[in-house]
Design a protein that fits this description.
The complex is a heterodimer of chains A (664) and B (139).
Chain A lengths: L1 H27 L7 H28 L5 H6 L6 H6 L5 H22 L5 H25 L23 H30 L4 H32 L10 H26 L3 H24 L6 H5 L1 H26 L13 H32 L7 H21 L10 H24 L5 H18 L12 H26 L1 E7 L4 E4 L2 E12 L3 E12 L4 E4 L2 E6 L2 E6 L1 E5 L2 E12 L5 E11 L3 H54 L1
Antiparallel strand pairs in A: 1-10, 2-3, 3-4, 4-5, 4-6, 6-7, 8-9, 9-10
Helix pairs in contact in A: 1-2, 1-6, 2-5, 2-6, 5-6, 5-7, 6-7, 6-12, 7-8, 7-10, 8-9, 8-18, 9-10, 9-13, 10-12, 13-14, 14-16, 15-16, 16-17, 17-18
Chain B lengths: L1 H21 L13 H11 L18 H15 L4 H12 L14 H23 L7
Helix pairs in contact in B: 2-3
The chains are: A alpha+beta (664), B mainly alpha (139).
């Protein structure tokens, strides 16, 4: 019964999305004003219904209701509760339901709290949100029904891919989806503003907190995903320019550019059309990414043919939304003038440079990700990977980082480079020292050298906008910018360190033997069997000393899951202030003489955790900026409410005075 | 006579199979080359070669057995003094362009390399257009 109720809720939510689109659209017409009242409540109920449907699906996974096809295919009764819950979105249908839920709740949230936009723009925005949601509802209901039944119900489920049975699954997809779908709000805002032709500083100020929120979730989601890949795959890779990774990077790049152009629009009423365009592009990238990943097309074009209905649906939706939005943009862009002018050496100039570079990296990533699909359709299979993406994106990223050294110190409208060149000496000296140190340490490749030199320089330069200010009285949003930019420098240093300094040791070790990797000496003390809820494992006990210091214990495992049957290495990590020791236990080999050896993979990765610390700093900076925006907005609302209250009081007084006068 | 010959022939043809069975299949799959410089070369090459049965992984970070075989072959050839790019070319000849993550400029792939240059030109054009008319004022 429950699955049918879930499906019913989904249909209802879809119907409400239709109503929201209709009512929102009608309210824009001359005599449709009466419809405006229902749009907000409908949006809120739509979000709640979608969330209820997701709640039911989660419950079905928790109960392991095997009569539901999705549960039978992706879950197992012996799985720990956490993975039963998180497994709900560890598959195609469930993740699409999570997507529409987040999108519905996002729309509901906007409907409930956003009061800055002019009412017509707001109605157009909510209608736009409903329009996008409708496509996703249709995709779910017609091509990816998560509540489909299975008869007869099997004895037990197929289980979840062991690689996904990790706390990362509970955290990473929902965070990323909040980011992806949060950008749908920016998309709808852009559509709404295009329809009503109201693009200006007020629009930017209203949109900025939503973009910031989505961007923070994207940043956290990507950072978490990168760390997850790093430890779970057992090879220490943190970024591979994999299509799935690119799918999350592209919306982030667009959102980052949008965030910066939004601040130009808000402060200076410039870059109007460009900002609206980025609003459209950012969410388009989310859709392209998610759909390409979800359809399976990226691993092989043939997955498209496996379920032609899904593939066709995806293409149609992409064409309607992205094509439609771009068409609207083309029709209206002429009426949205570019706005105020500015000189090349100015805060706006630096931000435009940032935008052009970010967009170029986005373009490269998009082309590199889609190109293999294109050639495969033409009959040749090629691979595009790190050797292409890394240098080509660096071509744009490095100039951007150089401009970041001084850009935030420039004044709006017009400035002189000579005003900041003196202060710039400090980060440049830092860059020289860091680069010299890295060269001395034997780093010879250009990109790692550049990263190691620029990273610390960026950290120093990011703090410079605070000079001459009282640190305590500097606005929170300034602190946000400082911390986010410092985070970029920190992460860059970590990335460069990985390729510059990592020490690797692959060895077949006897129990009791000591291995040396970098400054660590590591003894394989014993290997013993151990059991978990749905797996058994061999666990290695490693006693490690850093440079003859205190002994620490690491316990890497080789885990065998029985549903589905699969063996995975579970790495064990030990962090220090200056890096991380990464250990993996492999297979046992027994020689002819009966001598047993265990395969060990050991890495010493100096400064590598800075990658994710930097990522989190970037997100923290975004969080502070968001906090300051929200606080400002609340203060303004409070002041207006107070003002309104006072006006009412005055009006009441005047009235009573007048009444008294009349009585007298 | 002819039967004996055929039997001998069959034995000869089967012999390599036996030999394969008694040998460890990929001696260098999980072992590093003793010379650190050679190992670094091998590692750099392995990171840019695709594991053909995995979902976007290089052979340097995959547990699949074919990845292990390929690692072993790469290390053996590097140890024998072969140039990494020659090994890449050999692998491409064997498995097709798909095996290399480093696309070559060819009739099928030139747009990949034209794109960044085009983007640079476009960026320069946009920035120029934006700033050369910076003196005029406009609402």
């Amino acid at each position: 019964m429950l699955p049918e109720i879930g499906l019913g809720l989904l249909w209802l939510a879809a119907a409400l999305a239709g109503l929201q689109l209709l009512a929102g659209g009608l309210s824009l017409s001359a005599n449709g004003g009466g419809m405006a009242g229902i749009v907000r409540p409908v949006a809120i109920v739509q979000g709640i219904l979608a969330a209820a449907a997701l709640g039911i699906l989660i419950w079905l996974f928790v109960q392991t209701d095997l009569s539901v096809k999705l549960v039978a295919e992706n879950s197992h009764s012996a799985k720990p509760l956490m993975y039963k819950i998180a497994g709900t979105w560890g598959n195609h249908e469930g993740s699409m339901l999570l997507w529409v839920t987040v999108m519905g709740l996002g729309g509901a949230f906007v409907a409930a709290v956003e009061r800055r936009l002019p009412e017509p723009t707001m109605m157009a925005t909510l209608a736009g949100q409903a329009f996008v949601s409708l496509g996703f509802y249709a995709f779910l209901l017609f091509a990816s029904n998560p509540f489909a039944r299975l008869y007869p119900a099997p004895e037990d489920g197929n289980g979840l891919n062991p690689l996904l049975q990790d706390p990362g699954l509970a955290f990473h997809p929902p965070t990323l989806y909040l980011g992806y779908v949060g950008l749908s709000i920016a998309f709808s805002f852009a559509i709404g503003a295009l329809i009503t032709r109201q693009v200006g500083p007020d629009f930017a100020r209203a949109m900025r907190p939503w973009v910031l929120g989505a961007w923070i979730f994207l940043t956290v989601g990507i950072t978490a995903g990168s760390y997850w890949a790093y430890y779970v795959l057992g090879w220490g890779g943190w970024w591979f320019w994999d299509p799935v990774e690119n799918a999350s990077l592209m919306p982030w790049l667009a959102a980052t550019a949008l965030l910066h152009s939004c601040s130009v629009l808000a402060a200076r009423n410039a870059l109007r059309a460009w900002t609206v365009m980025l609003g459209v592009v950012a969410f388009s990238m989310s859709m392209v990414g998610t759909f390409l990943v979800r359809s399976g097309i990226l691993t092989s074009v043939h997955a498209f043919a496996v379920d032609p209905r899904r593939g066709g649906f995806i293409l149609a939706l992409l064409a309607i939304y992205i094509g439609g939005a771009l068409l609207l943009f083309a029709l209206r862009a002429a009426t949205v003038t570019e706005g105020e002018r500015f000189a090349i050496i100015s805060r706006e100039g630096a931000l435009v440079f940032n935008n052009v570079m970010l967009s170029s990296i986005l373009g490269i990533t998009l082309i590199g990700t889609l190109y293999p699909l294109f050639t495969e359709a033409m009959g040749t299979k090629v691979s595009v990977g790190p050797p292409y993406f890394t240098p080509v994106s660096a071509m744009f990223a490095v100039p951007m980082f150089v401009v970041l050294l001084f850009g935030p110190m420039l004044r709006w409208r017009r400035d002189k480079f000579s005003r900041v060149s003196g202060v710039l000496a400090l980060p440049l000296v830092v860059a020289l020292i860091a680069g010299g140190w890295a060269f001395g340490a034997g780093v010879r490749h250009v990109l790692p050298l550049l990263g190691l030199a620029l990273g610390p320089a960026l950290v120093v330069a990011s703090v410079l906008p605070l000079r001459g200010r009282s640190v305590l009285r500097a606005p929170l949003s300034l602190w946000g910018m400082v911390i986010a930019h410092a985070g970029i420098g920190v992460a860059l240093f970590g990335m460069a360190s990985d390729s510059a300094f990592t020490v690797e040791k692959l060895v077949a070790a006897k129990v009791g033997e000591v291995q040396q990797v970098g400054p660590w000496s590591i003894r394989l003390a014993e290997v013993a069997p151990i059991a978990g809820p749905n797996w058994t494992a061999m666990e290695g006990v490693l006693k490690a000393r850093y440079d003859g210091g205190a002994e620490v214990t690491l316990r890497p495992q080789s885990r065998t899951f029985w549903a589905p049957l699969q063996t995975n290495a579970v790495s064990a990590l030990k962090g220090r202030w200056n890096g991380q020791l990464y250990t993996v236990l492999g297979d046992e080999t027994v020689s002819d003489k009966g001598e047993s050896r265990w395969q060990l993979r050991l890495w010493w990765k100096p400064y590598v955790p800075l990658i994710w610390i930097g990522g989190l700093l970037v997100a923290l900076g975004g969080g502070l900026a968001l906090l300051s925006r929200v606080a400002q907005d609340l203060k303004r609302r409070l002041a207006r409410a107070k003002g309104g209250h006072r006006r009412d009081e005055v009006a009441a007084l005047v009235k009573t005075d007048a009444a008294k006068g009349d009585a007298a | 006579m002819i039967r004996a010959l055929l039997a001998a022939l069959a034995l000869m043809m089967a012999a390599p199979v036996w030999a394969d069975d008694s040998m460890p299949p990929a001696p260098w799959a999980y072992r590093q080359l003793p010379d650190p410089a050679q190992e670094a070369k091998a590692k750099a090459l392995m990171e840019t070669l695709r594991c053909l049965v995995c979902q976007s992984q290089s052979i340097a970070d995959s547990d699949a057995s074919i990845a292990g075989d390929m690692r072993s072959q790469v290390r053996e050839r590097i140890a024998a003094g072969e140039d990494p790019e020659a090994i890449r070319a050999w692998l491409i000849q064997r498995y097709g362009d798909y095996v290399s993550y480093e696309p070559r400029v060819s009739a099928a792939t030139w747009p990949l390399f034209a794109a960044p240059l085009l983007l640079v030109a476009l960026a320069a054009f946009l920035l120029r257009k934006r700033f050369t008319s910076g003196t005029e004022t406009e609402a």
